[in-house]
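Subject: Terpene synthase N-terminal domain-containing protein structure
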Amino acid sequence: MEFQSLPQTQAKLINEIKETMFSSLDINPYSLVSPCAYDTAWLAMIPHPNQPSKPMFEGCLSWVLNNQTEHGFWGNCDDQSGMPTLECLTATLACVVALRKWNVGSSMISKGLEFIHSSNAKRLLKEMKKEGFIPQWFAIVFPGMVELAEEVLKIQILKDQSVFVSDIFYHRQLIFKKELHNKETYLLSYLEVLPSSYFNEELIIKKLCEKGSLFQSPSATAQAFMATENSKCLHYLQTLVHKFSNNNNNNIIGVPTTYPMDKDLIKLCIINYVERLGLAEHFAIEIEQLLQQVYKNYVKCDGEFYYEKSYYSLATLELHLLKESLAFRLLRMHGYKVFPSNIYWILKNEDIKNHIESNYECFSVTMLNLYRATDLAFHGEFELDELRIFSRKLLQKSILVGAPHTNPFNKLIIIFI
């Protein structure tokens, strides 16, 4: 490429990005959301009501058939090392079960099981054992998927790693005992992997949101529908698949780990991504337009997160806090009037504060963005000083246990940090 042609080439690339990425934010922001192998596999498991021998959502099954990696697993690699993560273990088990349920992809099933029993998978378990820390989401999801896979595949999973697996199962029992004693119901956000004795149809229907989802989780809602055949669940799932089928021309449909998502969060993540790449000067007009849209909604809610304790999950809470942290930092950087109270409510609400501290490994990305937001503190803003201390403490704990690499919500959008 000749030097003289470089500016023209850059201008062409910038225009292409403006036409594709930024224009799609107004048309369909979900086109920028990454699919989740685990949740897509659960939708692929749902049988058609009128033809039980066929999947209801064939596009989701097609996605599973077309997204196995060359190493045999499904899911996203760690950004730094390129190695599979704990999320890949649960996603691969879910995809293998979905394929076996419909008797397709036998070679892919074998390859997936090879990964589950590979040195890479065992390394993940050994590292977790060495660190002495089991992420709560993994302690709940992994045992449930192992049990389901063993039931469907009629084989024993990770037999030679029984000591590590037993520790995870034991940790799950401790979580169940604690949460049931406290009469918490957020465990229903993991409905798809809960033993049937832990829930009933009445409780599931009671916890459905107005639009039919269970904690905005596609996988949990898929199981809720299979357990109850509730029409609201069905409508939610059909709406979800239709929304993401618009992103595809070949009937290969992958769904995210939570839906619906906050469109302002998607916009903030795009701005954050562009600025951290050092490209903001090329998209100044587009960034300003997006921030104006975000600010209108931001001042309406005044930074307050209204929620019922009985209705939230780690995913929805983490994403909301992430949005608040990004909004405060980006809006203040661009001269908008925002106040510490817009994010300080995190510490004022004891339920939320305690929940974050108890599940800090799932909030590492959010705490990093909250910490960055406090970089923009003005003199005398003591609330931001407290938030800085709080976020730094949890980040230090996350670093010690490697939590940033075990959080399944890190891959929801292109990039959060």
